[in-house]
Input
Amino acid sequence: MNAFERAFERTIGHEGGYSIDPRDPGGETKFGISRRSYPRENIAEMTIDRARVIYERDFWVAAKCDEMPDKLAIEVFDAAVNSGIPQASRWLQRSLGVADDGVIGPVTLSAARACAVDGTVARFLGWRLAFMADLSTWPAFGRGWARRVSANLRDVGV
Output
């Protein structure tokens, strides 16, 4: 199984099936694909295969996950799906000690390839959890987000 497939399997395990939750700013959602982000998709009829195509194109490739160490890429991907690429990029950049402009470019990728991966992943997850805890939707979704980050932390060093 390649890194994208591992990332997809982990992320899809955190994302639910079909839902319309009035507390969710994404609105109608299935497999983590929201009506707000994908207004032209038929969310109710979304298949796992269609979700995989969207995830690979719009998150894995777009966040340049294929150009960084697998463990780090898997975390960046999961965060990008959950919070968007610019935010995931900032957490990555802060974790690497480079300017956090929200764009994964040559400086960020060079630092990612040279980093101590486990420590970078731990810092990344720390930034991610702190951000989520400050969101107004934390009371509604915080327990699930904390479980997601906790599950990811358990894989550090594996």
Notes: The two ends are 16 Å apart (CA to CA). The chain has seven helices and two strands. The first strand starts at residue 29 and ends at 30.
